[in-house]
# Entry
Amino acid sequence: MSIDIARIEAAVAEILDAVGEDPARAGLTATPRRVAQAYAEFFAGNDVDAREHLSDSIEFTANADQTGELVVLRDIEFRSMCEHHLLPFLGVAHLAYVPDERIIGLGNLARVVETISARAQLQERLTEEIADAIDDGLSPRGVLVVIDAVHGCVSARGSRQTSSSTVTLASRGVLSNPVERAEVMALIGRGGNA
# Structure
């Protein structure tokens, strides 16, 4: 399903009218188009399978002592839209995996985050979906995903907690072990925002 720009523009004009604004006012005439373009970007991941970014993984057939114990990619910036209020949440994702027989370019991991976050989301589900995509796409011995984000629905409305952030975690395989997970969390904490 592609994004219907014209419908979004019409809906934004209706919202402006519903809140007592004049959509024809000089400062607002381009607003429906701008919002529609922004929404096309915010929801660009709707029909994309994030595992496609892992399809060009390469077989890693080195000796067991050459595979490395762990790959950690910290501070992947992302933005997503809270499905409850359609307000953005912004943050960083930290990814770790223990390679088995496949490895992938690090940029592809960032693209997985970008694709899955470009949907109406809940942070908890976003974290789980990223972990699942990496687990399914690479079949590693373990996966850990940590997300630290600030939510517009918390900072701009309701309780207005402008300094709070939310941290979520998802683990698979050997990185579900509390000792292994703690070691990775310590690595993420050094230089990371989590």
